[in-house]
Amino acid sequence: MTYDYIITGAGPAGCVLAHRLSEDPTVKVLLLEAGGSDRHPLFHMPAGFAKMTKGVGSWGWSTVPQKHLGDRVLRYTQAKVIGGGSSINAQIYTRGNAADYDSWASEEGAEGWDYRHVLPYFKRAEDNQRFADDYHGYGGPLGVSMPSAPLPICDAYIRAGQEYGMPYNPDFNGRQQAGVGYYQLTQRDQRRSSAAMSYLAPIRSRKNLTIRTGAHVHRILLEGQRAVGVEYAERGQMLTARANREVIVSSGAIGSPKLLLQSGIGPAGHLRSVGVPVTHDLPGVGGNLQDHLDLFVIAECTGDHTYDGVAKLHRTLWAGIQYVLFRTGPVASSLFETGGFWYADKAAQAPDIQFHLGLGSGIEAGVTRLRNAGVTLNSAHLRPRSRGTVRLSAADPTAAPLIDPNYWADPYDRAMSLEGLRMAREIFRQPALRSYILDERLPGSDKVSDEALFDYACASAKTDHHPVGTCKMGVDDMAVVDPQLRVRGLTGLRVCDTSIIPRVPSCNTNAPAVMVGEKGSDLIRGLDPLPPQLFRANLNEAPSIGR
Where in the chain is the domain with CATH 3.50.50.60? Predict the structure, then answer.
C-alpha cells in the first residue's frame, strides 16, 4: 500500500501527528503502533497508573548495569500501547521552565523552539478546566484538569512545603514555576485524557487515516538518500508500506533511535559491530540520552491517611463501585496529585528539583510497600549533566536495546540528587505533617551521611520515565535532526517525538511530547508557525527564571 505520510509509533507525538496531518482530506496517513489497543479499563482509570509501571502495556526493558550506581540494573518502563506514555503515566501535566526552551534555541541552535514560540503550541493542544490566560488555552483536544478529590494529607503536604520555605503556587505552568501546590492532570471527567483518547478517538472514522496496532516496524526503506517507506511485522507477516511524501519516526526516546539504527542510520562503527549494514553514517543517533533519576522518602502514617488500605479486597471492590457509579473515590486519583519545584543548587537560576507526593507506599514497581499505611515523597534532579546512549544488542529488530542512561556519571548530578533527597526528608518533618506521619521508614532516620544515602540510592533509585535527546535537534555534528525535524543528510525522513529534545526539560515529559507533535505537524505541512506569545508581563516573569 502507498500513503502520503507514514508515522511509526502512536505515542503522544504520533497521535498528534495523525490527527493534524489527516485534517487534509487529500492526503492518506498510515499510523503504525507496535502495541495493542487501550480497550482495557485500566488504561482509562486514573489510578490504573499503579499497574502500568509493573508491566501492563510496556516493553519490559531494563537498563544495562549502571556503573555509577553500584552496577545496578534498573527497570525501564517504556509504553507498548496506543497512546504511548500518555496511556500509562501518572497524568501529571507540567511544561517546565521558560529557560529550558530558550536554551534549546540559544545554545543548541534550535531556531524557533524558544519559549515564546513553543508556548502557542502548548496552548493549542490544551482544553484547560480552570485557566484561560497568557499561559493556557481551552477548546483543544487534550483535557487538563485539577485533581477531583484530593485527600486531606495533600493539603497538609502543601502547608509543610510552605513551612519548609516554598511559596504556594496555584499554577506550575504559569508565570512562576517554583513553589508547592497541586498538579494539573491530563484528565477529563475523571478519566485519563491520553493522546489516544484526545487526538485519535474523535477522528477514527476519517477515511484518509489508517491505524494499525500490533504493527512492529523493523526498518525504514531507503532509495539512495531518500526514505520511501517502511517494512513492518503484523500478525506474523512481513509487510511493506510506501510513503509518497515522508516517513515520520515517532517511536519515542528509546524506540526512535532503535529504529534508525536497525535501518542502518547511525554511527557506522556501532552498526558494523552488530552486523547492520550502514546506509547512512550519522554519529549522533542514540547518543545524548538524558533522564530524571528519582529518589524517594517513604514514611509510615499515623492512620489510614492514604490509599494503601484500598489494596484489601473488600475495599478494592468498593472503590471500583464508587468509580463506576459516581466517578469518585480512590480510582479517580492519579495517586500523584501534589508536588513542587525548588532549588538544590543555591546558584541555580530556575528550580532544579521536582517533588511528587505519592498517596501510598509501593505505588510503582520496585518500590517498597509498608505493612501499614504509608506516604511517599519522590525527588528528582531536573537538569542532569550526565549523558547516556541507546544501542542495539543485535541486528535482530525484535531484540531489546541496550539502554544506558549513565546516571550520575557527572558527580554534580549525584550531589544534587542527594540534596533533593535531604530536602524531601525535611519537608516530611515539618509541623503540618506531624499528625499524619508516624516516622520515616526509608531511607530511615539513621541514614544521615553521604555514604549511607549513596548506598540507599544505589539500592532503590528509579527512573522518572522521562528519557529524551537520543535523536537530538540542533546544528552541531552530533545533531540528528535540524530545527525542521528533518534527518540530516536524508530526504523524506523526519523524527518527531521527545527524542529530538536537545536538553531534558525541567518537568514531566508528556506535555512537551504533545507540544513537539503539534509544532512538528505544522513544520511537516509547511504551515506558517503560530505567532510567538506576546506577554502582558515581562518574559522574565514567565515560568521562574529567577527566585
Answer: 1-53+79-143+185-286+467-527
